[in-house]
Amino acid sequence: MELLMAILIGVLFTAAVYLILSRSLLKIVIGTGLLSHGAHLLILTMGGLGGASPPVLAEGVTDFADPLPQALILTAIVISFGVTAFILVMAYRAYAVHKTDDMNQLKGNDEHD
Amino acid sequence: MINLLLFPIIIPFLFAILLLFFKENVRMQRVLTLIGVVLSLVASFYLLITVKTDGVQAITLGSWPAPFGISMVSDMLSALLVTTTLLLTLFVVIYSFTSIGQERERFFYYPAILFMVTGVNGAFTTGDIFNMFVFFEVLLIASYLLIVLGGEKKQLRESIKYILVNVVSSALFVITVAFLYSVVGTLNMADISVKITEIGQPGIITLIAVLLLIVFGIKGSIFPLHFWLPGSYAAPPIPVLALFGALLTKVGVYAIMRTYTLFFTHNIGFTHEILMALSILTILIGCIGALAYFDLKQIIIYNIVIAVGVILFGAAQMNEAGISGAIFYLIHDMLIKGALFLLIGIIIYVTGTSNLRKMGGLMKTHAPLGWFFLIAAFGLAGIPPLSGFVGKLLIAQGAFQAGNVWGSIIMLASSLIVLLSVMRIFIYAFWGEPVELPKTNRKSYVRMMFPAIAMVVLSIFYGVGTEWLIPYMTDATDVLLDPSIYIDAVLKE
């Protein structure tokens, strides 16, 4: 199971890297989304996929899933959610001001010689 | 008072939340920010004295036993860094009163600074690797706001790049923590250190060491991961730039120093050689950049890169002289970069340009600015009575002891380039024929001079009072060189 997850996460990272290296700003943002998905799945996988029941205290259950990675993922998800919202708004503002979403045109050396 | 080490984190956080309620009342914002920073500064000085007398302070939140809760640890290095951070913030905040402008002050400028200080102090104090990630995000998200606040064309363009680079490095940090957790099964830094010693650093741990170097290297801008820094740092206004230049990269440097002295000490032939090679290359690339530009901001920004290289070169030696030199230089660099950015901010304000070729003859009209800039420039290069000297001397001594002769020769030669780059600013801006200056307010010039002069004077004291500082530096070095002090303080067994 872990092997399968590792391959899936690898595919996610590949797609994320490919998208982040593209020219369109929106594709880059989608790439960062995939990247954080991959990272979160990786925490889950690296914590071990064993454990028969969810980490909730209940009568007669002894074989839990590791609760720590789940807490870490939850933290990482809200953080990346906040950052993604910020990037999207900033991409919108940059589009409104610069009139382009092409990263190659978002460069300027106007002030230096 | 076991919660003492949390005060420098909590007080700025509390005041930042308070400030959110008075968005329009700029006077109130200024007063409350000042009170908040001064209070946390007092707390951090008290913490510094406590750590000096009682040794490493550690607390596990919620009174859970040590590896299970989140530990906060204040050893001498982190106490010193926290104090320096707050000192710097105090002067930058005072400078901002005059220079930042009402529009920005109305849009959560001061809360963002205080949140960033919360994150920086937290990252310096935490004893838990995932908690360090969270504090990194706290300071990064506040820095995203600060870098784009104002919404100028250039700021929007550069902050997109800044955010993207940091999002990628944060994802890498999460990935690395996941790998580390799967190998050692713990997140507490002291406990990780114990576990790595037990399994004797197999290849996978060395791989994680390199991954962490990449993560913190992006934050701290070491070669070849410094590419984002020159563009991004040129975008925001000067007080923000001073905060970023003095604090943010140093958090990455601190994290490298911490992990490479606490975790990865069993295969230093590989990990620390890489660190050393990269730090030398960082120095070289910084030198090239510092000489290449005729732009005030860019010259000092590339000097940040040089300083990061010098500090990490010292830390990579893993002997007493090298590490204590790195600590001396780290704190010196935070102070002097703050001072220099504030001073060039005044030069840009007075001349209305950051292009060196369009300036000249400022000595005739603004003599004090010139003399203080000259002192700061000598301090940066490490001329003996001033602050940069002892750090570089100790680093060179450590490198010669460890047999890295060529590295230390490059490091020492870089001082000449640093001196040349800042003296060029002095010669172009202050000597020569006076050029016509735009009309500026003499009163705000004077008001901006005060915090800048205070920082320069502080760095002079830092250089002259070396003898008085040595016991503190020795304590900091001891903990870094002997992780068992740190581990015993946290795990208390």
List the helices and strands and how they pair.
The complex is a heterodimer of chains A (113) and B (493).
Chain A: H1 2-20, H2 25-46, H3 67-98
Chain B: H1 7-19, H2 26-54, E1 57-60, E2 71-74, H3 76-99, H4 102-106, H5 109-125, H6 129-148, H7 153-184, H8 189-199, H9 203-220, H10 229-234, H11 238-262, H12 268-292, H13 296-315, H14 320-351, H15 362-365, H16 367-381, H17 388-401, H18 405-430, H19 442-464, H20 466-481, H21 483-491
Antiparallel strand pairs in B: 1-2
Helix pairs in contact in B: 1-2, 1-5, 2-3, 3-5, 3-11, 3-14, 3-19, 3-20, 5-6, 6-7, 6-11, 7-9, 8-21, 9-11, 11-13, 11-14, 12-13, 12-18, 13-14, 13-17, 13-18, 14-16, 14-17, 14-19, 14-20, 16-18, 16-19, 17-18, 20-21
Subcellular location (chain A): Cell membrane
Membrane topology (chain A): Multi-pass membrane protein
Keywords (chain A): Cell membrane, Membrane, Transmembrane, Transmembrane helix
What's the gyration radius of chain B in Å? 21 Å
In CATH, the architecture of chain A is Orthogonal Bundle
Instruction: Give the spatial strand order of the biggest sheet of chain B.
Output: 1-2
CATH topology of chain A: Helix Hairpins
Largest sheet of chain A: none
Number of strands of chain B: 2
**What is the first-to-last residue Cα distance of chain A?**
56 Å
> What's the level 1 CATH class of chain A?
Mainly Alpha
In which range does the helix fraction of chain A lie? 55-70%
Q: What would you call the shape of chain A? A: elongated
Radius of gyration of chain A: 20 Å
**Number of domain units of chain B:** 1
The whole-number mean of residue pLDDT values of chain B reads: 93
Alpha-carbon distance between the termini of chain B?
A: 21 Å
Look at the helices and sheets of chain B and give the structural class. Answer: mainly alpha
Beta fraction of the residues of chain A? under 5%
Keywords (chain A): Cell membrane, Membrane, Transmembrane, Transmembrane helix
InterPro entries (chain A): CPA3_antiporter_subunitC (IPR050601), NUOK/Mnh_C1-like (IPR039428)
Subcellular location (chain A): Cell membrane
Membrane topology (chain A): Multi-pass membrane protein
